[in-house]
Write a structure and sequence with these properties.
Elements (H helix, E strand, L loop, with lengths): L2 H10 L4 H13 L3 H10 L4 H16 L8 H7 L6 H20 L3 H6 L2 H16 L4 H15 L5 H12 L5 H16 L6
Helix pairs in contact: 2-4, 3-4, 4-6, 6-9, 8-9, 8-10, 9-11, 10-11
Amino acid sequence: MDKELFIATIKKGTHQLELRELLVNSCLKNTFYIVILLKNIEQINDKNSTFSARILELTCQKDLSILTPYLDSFCNLLAKVKLDGVVRPCAKVCELLMLEYFSKRNKNIYHKITKIHLKKITSAGFDWMIGNMPTAIQAYTMQTLYLIGTTSNWIHPELVQVIEKNIPTGSVGFVNRGRKVIKAIQTNTALKL
């Protein structure tokens, strides 16, 4: 798929499975298309930002290392995104990044993520946890913050405090995930989801 067709297809914003797969495969073949997705995501209230974020998430699920040249741009966007449809895929990508980073399975990702990236992901994560975000966003973010907290002393106590504050009004999914995270923190064991 050439650049013009890629941009036109993204602008359609259609969620047809065939088109999503075509867009994801195009990103995998031409990593420059990640730049187009990130620019669209930066258009905060544009419907293309939601669709572009979803395509970025699906692409990262297939090959997370494709994002590494653009980590600065991605992490800079995290504080700006507000729409649930954009935040959810961004939160999922953060979770994927942290799972790879802390498992150290992918050396390319491990060596590309900096302390600044971790700080921006942490800051955005706490904003999403404190804000009135849907359960999926908070569930991804709990795991992300839990993992980062394994190397930063202040994160776990803050995370527990936020989760405990939200449990009385949280959904069943939030309560279940929150209790697992709290238990892992309090018993100093690995988080089992």
